[in-house]
Write the structure tokens for this entry.
Amino acid sequence: MKKAILSFLVLMLMAWPLASAQEMTTYVVNDTQPECVVDDDCGEGEACTEGACVEVIPPPECVEDADCEEEEVCTEGACEAVVPPADPAECVEDADCEEGEACTEGACEAAPADPPADPAECVEDGDCEEEEVCTEGACEAVVPPADPAECVEDADCEEEEVCTEGACEAVVPPADPAECVEDADCGEGEACTEGACELDVPPPPEDPGITPDSPLYGLDRAIERISLKLTLGKSAKAKKGLAHARERLMEVQAMIAAKKMGAAAEAQEEHDDIMDDVNDQVADLGDGDIGEELADELELEAALDEHEEAVQELNSVRLKAKGALTAEQQTQVDALVASLEASAVEAKINVQVKKEKTKIKIKATQGLTDEELDALEAQAREIVGQGGKVKILGKKGRGRSTTETGEEEPEDEEPEEDEEESEEGETEGEEEPAKGKGKDKSDKGRGRNK
């Protein structure tokens, strides 16, 4: 009986730690979900490192030529075969060769012997085919007599035609003589450019390409519009539209310099139409990942800043051209620049309003303070500038964003407590948030210094 009781007590003592461990583990909750556990959880070319998928950069195949096989060299980390230089051509024409030789595919070779003369193909016309005659031993086609002359003198032709070798041809006006040879031949504020006096203003920063004074301009714009329609995504369309609008600004600048105000006005109208389309695309942004939405708006805002600078450059051209333009031309230029400025400002305001709405959405869903929201925007702007992608994490990761490779760049190194948890702990929670905020500010400052 005593042995049974002792055995029972021993079993109870052995089972008690297991029961306690089970009871303790019941209350452990994993409130974070890593992006990956093993490499297979990641995409192609990525590996799982500390719960995050990171792009795997393979080591270079070589560092120096000695790392490669014989007759190979190391070029930018890869082994490539050595291509021997082509042999220079021995000759280009027969005159480069010796007497009795001919140049054949870059090499001098013995000239072929003259072939024996062919026997006469015919002796009389009867030896030839129909509509052929025998001429010096060869059958040749009968050439019908030429049509009678269309004219003898200019009076036999229509107006603006002349009689040339019996045929009436259109009069080709002589080319206009050069307007100038040097700058001194032009007026004040003008310079001689390829024989024409143009405004002495800075040229566009880039080659404007096909300008409105070209007959191909309409076709070029049609191809551009088709390309824009085939672009997928409202953000991508808005960005491509801004690039096209930037080209129109360069066209306006080139046409003003050439004093072709009608062509400049055509480019300005094309610019304003594009900016209207950009505004439509901006208005439809949203309904996706809030991080991507914020990144798109920051990219568009940066592009519009550059666009606004280009418009201001046009304004300086307008001011420099004063005195070299007629009063009518100056009025036209003033109207062109004013319209361009208005369309650029309108688009920038629309993007900024859209961005503020996105920030309000982020603030509401992530529970961020104004300071945290501003810090998040600054961090996202830096990531976008480096070509990365912005991703807003869950509530526990608020104030964070990720780059294109998926590496986290925390704004706050330690997440604050949830508002619900701080409200439930009335006594214990009163001091903790204060400590947390102090640490957040310190960490946030360190993050900015980085």
User: Anything to note?
Assistant: The CA atoms of residues 360 and 373 lie 9 Å apart. Residues 18-30, 395-400, 402-450 have pLDDT under 50 and may be disordered. The longest strand covers residues 46-49.
